[in-house]
Amino acid sequence: MSHALPAFAAQDLPTWKRAVLKVGSSLLAGEGEGLSPKHALNLAQFVSAQIAAGREVVIVSSGAVAAGRGILHRQPAAGVAMAERQALAALGQAPLIALWQRFFDRPVAQVLLTHDDLRNRRRYLNARATLQALLNLNAVPVINENDTVSVDELKLGDNDNLAAVVAALVDADALFIATDIDGFYSANPRRHADAQPILDVEALTPEFYAMAGEAGSGVGTGGMRTKLEAAAKAAAAGIETFLFNGSRADTVAALGRGQLHGTRFRPAQNRMAARKYWLRNVPLEAGAILIDAGAAGAVRERGASLLPGGVLSAEGDFRRGDMIEIRQASDGNTIARGVSQYSAADVRRLARRHSRDIEGILGYSYGENIIHRDDLVVI
């Protein structure tokens, strides 16, 4: 396949403020073994330019296993045991982070996650709070699958799907997937000379999945199908996905100018609508927070967060991260539902108190809100 010119015509990128950039192993692995800065440099320059322009970028980076191979100076045998792959990942995490740090004049923070961290609501909230704090500190979070302890997760293309979940976790506007192919084609362009570029995908139907091939390189673990799965997950959260060739310096440079040479996957609905839909449909836990009329008005009419000062009491035995009802104490009516930052026992202790007193009362603080407005929907 010729690379004289980009195979995908330029498209203008929509405006975005926060994005997740997923970088595959094939872009970071050296031609022999270990890691190479060849393509990472261009991608890091793109990230730096976006941060300088006032945007925020979280990186989801593969490459730990490849880096581990480089340390041992050997290739694993076919059908290598999971334990050895996990050992290679453990060896490779430090050089992977070191690779990224060399390109930035700001701190790079390593964050290791498993899908269990993101399925469990309490760990989900902790992960989100940590990532938000890192962005507030002007650090560059570099996330990878915690391959060393995961069991089922170290499978085909997991970091593609992990990137989509992280994009929803941090309320990103966009998911950029950097790979070693120009975009999504009607067939595998390495095998089919007549494969046609697909620039814009409104909705991922079974026909698109049928076009997706298997893994394209021997270094990474994912193929085009996992890219589509990631785009579908992001779309469900109201996030657009942009697939592009991270090995092409001209394509990466064009991104910095607001132009995509690749494939755009559109969400079915906007980000806020998708989140509100999720909040309305997550199963409720047994329990509720009772609030006064002033707090009820602030939540219902002004879209405010729920602060401890407006809380009268809590019912049930819910835990931090549970979806619960918010009721007005005077009439018992449910006015909203949301994800509580604190357990029922903590809420009872914090009732009628000021946010600044939370840490003094509990000995710790998960933030000034009992329920943040982004985790709350009015009924």
From TrEMBL:
It catalyses: L-glutamate + ATP = L-glutamyl 5-phosphate + ADP. Belongs to the glutamate 5-kinase family. This is Glutamate 5-kinase. Residues 287-371 form the PUA domain. ATP binds at residues 22, 179-180, 221-227. Catalyzes the transfer of a phosphate group to glutamate to form L-glutamate 5-phosphate. Keywords: Amino-acid biosynthesis, ATP-binding, Cytoplasm, Kinase, Nucleotide-binding, Proline biosynthesis, Transferase. It is found in: Cytoplasm. Its main location: cytoplasm. GO terms for biological process: L-proline biosynthetic process. Substrate binds at residues 62, 147, 159. GO terms for molecular function: ATP binding; glutamate 5-kinase activity; RNA binding. It is an enzyme of class 2 (transferase). GO terms for cellular component: cytosol. It holds the Pfam family AA_kinase.
